[in-house]
Specification:
Helix 1 links the parallel strand 1 and strand 2. Helix 2 packs parallel to helix 4 and helix 8 packs across helix 11. By secondary structure, the protein is an alpha/beta fold. It contains eleven helices and ten strands. It has one domain: Rossmann fold. The radius of gyration is 19 Å and the shape is globular. NADP nicotinamide-adenine-dinucleotide phosphate binds next to helix 1, helix 4 and strand 4. NADP nicotinamide-adenine-dinucleotide phosphate (NAP) binds next to helix 1, helix 4 and strand 4.
Length: 297
């Protein structure tokens, strides 16, 4: 069977590398990345690749400058790389998608929210970013909505998976590396994250592209948890001592390093699950799967 051709950005990243591994039987991906000579900031280059692949039906846009610390250094700088990649790069992708009439799957983030809400955020909540990365990602969403209508925006949060691509470690692998070295670490007990199994994200991408589903959705897991409790659960599933993980205080940390940080990022996925008729894994299921996929290591 002939595979559906999909143009993709950010496919070498943490999320993209896992997604293409899982979907390579379904889709033929054309990789728009720096190694292949495509900088998404370069409008002409982006246009050229779209022109070279008229049979592609969709574009999967994952590329971004995701380094929140770098973004903090570049705060307010519209000549900086974070703004140029996240906003101008997205604009180039969206305009090319609109011009060549390709379905656009755009990946965004829970960092568009300020993290002050004690109950889970839904798509109806008004975004309010508190740092530069989240701000540029929100502007990217706005560019998508303004320039085109055949789009899916999937807000992702706290991605976890079994792989560890070079230089792109997820939080799960970071904690595992401490546990393997028998290191004690403290993690916040007073913040909330929504861990998301990247393998589910791959299925969402497949369903959305195949059915050309449009709109803005929270593409997140089904468990809200503190990083402290996340790490302790991870330790248990992988057979390490959970007592190595100590409770830390976000409030106390902010006194030492008063950078803007989101505290409560519980992200509700109900709209996505209902629209796609697909269940996003809870944390226990995701951790068991990842443990098994890693050969019980
Ligand atoms: N990781 C998270 O915690 C998280 C959470 C929520 C949402 N997200 C979103 O999910 C998406 C994927 O994130 P990720 O963690 O997989 O990112 P990542 O590991 O940092 O990878 C970023 C990707 O973007 C590419 N890229 C950067 N600048 C580029 C440019 N100018 N032109 C072309 N490609 C460029 C990189 O290519 P090179 O390899 O060549 O540098 C890489 O493939 C992003 O949109 C991010 O905002 C991530």
């Amino acid at each position: 069977m002939k595979k559906t051709k999909v143009l993709g950005t950010g496919l070498s990243g943490l999320v993209g590398s896992r997604v293409i591994k899982l979907l390579e039987d379904e889709f033929e991906f054309v990789n728009l990345d720096l190694k292949n000579g495509v900088d998404i900031i370069d409008e002409d280059k982006v246009y050229q690749v779209f022109q070279d692949h008229p049979e592609a039906v969709a574009v999967l846009h994952l590329a971004a400058m995701t380094d929140v610390s770098r973004a903090y250094q570049e705060n307010g700088d519209k000549n900086g790389l974070v703004y140029r990649v996240n906003v101008l790069g997205t604009k180039n992708i969206v305009q090319a998608a609109a011009h060549f009439k390709k379905y656009l799957f755009h990946v965004s983030t829970d960092f568009v929210f300020d993290g002050t809400k004690r109950t889970p955020y839904t798509e109806a909540d008004t975004p309010h970013p508190i740092e530069w990365y989240g701000q540029t990602k929100l502007w990217a969403e706005e560019v998508v909505k303004k320039e085109y209508d055949n789009y899916f925006i999937g807000r992702l949060a706290f991605p976890i998976n079994a792989d560890e691509p070079a230089g792109r470690q997820d939080f799960l692998h970071k904690v595992l590396s401490w546990l393997r070295r028998d290191e004690e670490r403290s993690l916040f007990r007073d913040t909330i994250v929504t861990p998301t199994f990247i393998d589910d994200v791959a299925q969402v991408i497949k369903l959305a592209i195949n059915q050309q589903i449009t709109g803005l959705y929270h593409m997140t897991g089904s468990t809200y948890i503190s990083p402290y409790n996340f790490a302790r659960r991870l330790a248990k599933v992988f057979g390490f001592r959970d007592s190595l993980i100590k409770p830390g205080s976000f409030k106390a940390y902010l006194q030492i390093d008063p950078r803007p940080r989101q505290q409560y990022l519980a992200i509700n996925n109900q709209e996505l699950e209902e629209t796609l008729d697909f269940k996003m894994s809870n944390l226990d299921t995701a951790l068991s799967m990842i443990h098994w996929q890693m050969g019980g290591l």
